[in-house]
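Let's practice the habit of predicting before peeking. Look at the sequence and jot down your guess about where helices and strands might fall. Then scroll down.
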Amino acid sequence: MKYKGFYRITCMLLSAALVFAGFAGCGKKGRTGAGDPGSTESMGNTQGEDGGRAMGRYMEEDLPLPAEFSSIHDMKKLEDGSIRMAGCSEGKESVWESKDDGISWEKVWDFPEELQDNIRYTALSSGGRAVCAYDEELDTGEGTETRIKEIFYLMESDGSFRQISFELPQVEELYSNLAAELLFVGNERILIGDDQGIFYLVNAVDGSVVRTYEFGNTGTRCLAFAAGKMLIFQGDSEVLLYDSETGEQKNPGDAMRSGIAESGMMYEVDTLDGGESIYYLSEKGMYHYRFGGGVVEQLIDGGFNSLGSFSVDVNSLLMLDERSLLTAETYTDENAALRAGLLKFTYSADTPSKPDKELKVYSLYEDNSIWQAVTRFQKEHADIYVHFETALSGENGMTVSDALKTLTTEIMAGKGPDVLVLDEMPVETYAEKGVLRDLSSVIEENGEAYFEGVRNAYRNQEGELYAVPTRFLIPMAQGGSAYYVPGEDFSEFTKRTGALDHMKPEEVISRFWYGSSAAWKREDRTLEESRVREFFEGLKQAYGEAPAEAEENGTSALPGAGFIPGEFKLLAGTWNISAGLFGVDPDYQLLLAVTDQLEGGDFGCMPGQAEHVFVPSVTVGISSKSSQPEAAEEFIKYLFTGEMQRILQGSGLPVQKEAFRSAIDGHEYEGNISQVEMEEGFTLELTPRTEEEIQKLMGLAESLTTPALQDAVIREAVLEQGEKMLKGEITPEEAASIVIRKLNLYLAE
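Done guessing? Here is the structure:
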């Protein structure tokens, strides 16, 4: 189990890069083909009576599973119409069966106990068989790398099993040659792909090799699929077809090549007609293609459902019939544990092919938490299509300043988004200019349930609320009493000699910026030069002269300001304090364990020129020019539901107190206490937190009322000049002067 999934995901990512590079037009939407009314090829594009509006769409629903699954590996329809599913539930690799199209399930059998721990891949056949690749660890002597031998086992329909007498050849340049692909071809043959990109078509009973497919070792692996007797290999820059019975290579044709280029690479494949045609999943939805035909048709637009979500891995396609199908999804739950679910898509001829409303959500950066919200929100609001747009892809050459200017122009012209994710945007400026709507009627006061100091951070003196953080991070410091005392101010802290030893200039500025920037703005929105100068002078005093090793050739990207890397540097004795943002990965037990290792160790708010500071995250507002204000309000309310707040999204701590407590209390270790040996030479004990420990962090969160300055343009200017200042290239006075000259014109616009 410990290897499962990794190789397939890696294979997809590596192959995808080359497949996309080798095709043309990969950014286009999948085509919609024409066909006879009522045929498969006309689904999703039929005209209704409602003013000629296109009607027909596959609707998504979650199906309950009989147990809690961490993964679903494969699903197959058997000859009698029942469905078999292989997966891992409650720590057991098992096979389940449904006789009512996935509504209810019964366990058929568990995999043998001796195979449970090291199964790499599992595949099912339509005859009820299962095959698995098992990693047997070989003893090669102390101090050497563990060598793995791949063993393949065949399970019959009744659960009896035996080893298949086939072994992957050992390759001289590899320590272990392992399975990268495993699937049934019919009921009698198995296709096995190895780390070298070589595929072996093997007889299931005697292990003899029928045929070998070799595409060359290019550093990537092909993906392989079977549909009837047709084998499909998706490789570097081409899709290859073979007749598995004769070995003859088939021409996929221009339609299939260009169709896959437009739809994106195939993830899963199934057939309803013995391989005459295929249905396949891609990142853009589900498609249908009849071999030899002239069009690849998009049946399901992934933008309207989970198939296009970046937050879940959708796989294991099983077509029930032409108008319904099952897929499995894998996602991370609120405890950061891997979970699997079952989705059913059913074609509804009476539903518009596209939702009636389009809600536009805009962010400067890609955000996984918004993707999750978009996917889940659309499941519950079939009449709304949520279009999530990010400005800075890294490929279009656009700067933050460019993106903000374009955004403002579009909003004023009435063409902009409905919901704004305001992270690193000038929130106060937007509010003053009338860009944002008042959310007072949307966000109800509820001091018992939420950290109201965080939720009300952007409420003005008139009581109007223009932006609301849905999550937050805490600028925090940690260290022994010789270098850090919780509660001391910025002036006291920066007088401590050696506190910032061994930190690089960019590490210092990128971390301590958060605790001070909120104190710099004046009423006219410009920056107060004396406060910026005090910030630079204080850090220069604490930092001293830049060590030689801090000087680097060329320009490197700034490191993240997360808290955890500093904790490991504390343990290693590299840093004297750890400073950064707590909440990106809220590993509270690690924070406490490291504190215990320090002499007089403690943690608290980061010393800064501002007090009670937090960093707003996934801060949302509604455009004053929104064309869908009601849908926008519903979306923002949804972000504050318990369901969304409990998901550990990697973008900060929940503002809902119950979800916050769940994120830090270690309840997932209840009755399952374990220890982890860390590289730094200490043991991390994974146990539930005590009530005292929980209340300490919750009390700290309760005290937060001041949002850190959220403006990427200001941040970039401060980091640039601050780094030069700590390297000794300019004085603190010069750095502050340059920052003010660069930014006050921008802020006055």
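How did you do? The chain is about 25% helix and 30% strand.
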